[in-house]
Design goal:
By secondary structure, the protein is of the alpha/beta class. The chain is about 30% helix and about 25% strand. It has helices spanning about 30-50, 135-145, 155-165, 190-205, 230-235, 255-270; strands at about 1-5, 55-60, 75-80, 95-105, 125-130, 130, 150-155, 170-180, 185, 220-225, 240, 245-250. The relative contact order is 0.16. Bound molecules: zinc ion (ZN). Zinc ion binds near residues 8, 10 and 135.
């Protein structure tokens, strides 16, 4: 059994500050240790359930946050910026399940820690076939494209609710409750690490009973930028259509193309 883990940082227990997620800040050094501890707990649970291969994709910022020398020996690590499939690089149909660790809610979620999608101040919203998605929904759709269920999500309470709204059978571990965008009630760290390990084992065992998240064709991606000039730049993507000053859309044939179109919008539509 192969298990795929996409690991983000904003949803890790203790992470509340911008400084925690910014490699140029001193607070970041401890946060990447917390992130590594949570990922290791997920790997450990997967191995206990019989996983023979665990691929971990570092999915935050420059995507070189996890401490490779401290990573569980059963895990192989995909890391570094510019990966063609970003937060879901190396995910394919050979995996029994995908786990999303350290995830955060989509932009516009109240009492969610660091809600956003990809860049921090770029999008107001992203929709697939009129369904509002954050990183969780976008990446879950890519797993679904390969027939792979998202079986486990960890992060703050808000992203766990977002996961259950996608599929109520997804296992979730809330490690903190946002009180605002940069504050939270954090649960005891050792308990949340133990909970990730336990739910990971259950999620890997139950993976077959969880339906993959699928978006039906025709697939329409709609993105709304926070600034008009960002939409101007992103409209360079030839397949895009301008809907209003802030909003672009494109229709695509398959989900991999949708994902790549989103990455193109994100790359083009920045200052
Ligand atoms: Zn993220």
């Amino acid at each position: 059994m192969r298990i795929y883990i996409s690991a983000d940082m904003e949803g890790v227990n203790g992470v509340v500050l911008r400084e925690h997620i910014d490699p140029s800040c001193k607070e970041y050094d401890i946060a990447r240790q917390w992130m590594t501890a949570e990922v290791n707990a997920a790997v450990e649970g997967a191995v206990a359930a019989g996983a023979t291969d665990v691929v971990v994709n570092d999915s935050h910022h420059h995507m070189a946050n996890l401490l490779v020398d401290k990573l569980h020996p059963a895990a192989r690590l995909v890391c570094g910026p510019g990966k063609p499939f970003s937060m879901v690089q190396d995910l394919d149909d050979s995996f029994a399940a995908a786990f999303f660790i350290g995830y955060h809610a989509k932009f516009g979620t109240p009492t969610a820690v660091q809600d956003h999608i990809f860049a921090y101040s770029q999008y107001h919203g992203v929709w697939i076939n009129t369904i509002a998605v954050g990183e969780l929904g976008l990446n879950a759709g890519m797993a679904g494209h390969f027939g792979v269920p998202v079986a486990l999500v960890s992060g703050d309470k808000a992203v766990c609710e977002e996961a259950r709204a996608l599929n109520k059978k997804i296992h979730t571990v809330a490690v903190k409750e946002g009180r605002g965008r940069h504050n939270a009630l954090c649960y005891p760290f050792t308990q949340t690490v133990a909970a990730i390990r336990a739910e990971s084992e259950k999620a890997a065992r139950n993976a077959k009973t969880i339906a993959p998240v699928r978006f039906d064709p025709p697939l329409i991606l709609k993105v709304q930028f926070q600034k008009v000039e960002l939409a101007d730049y992103a409209s360079l993507l030839p397949s895009s259509k301008r809907m209003d000053a802030f909003t672009l859309c494109c229709e695509v044939d398959d989900y991999a193309q949708l994902y790549r179109s989103f990455l193109a919008f994100t790359k083009l539509g920045r200052v």
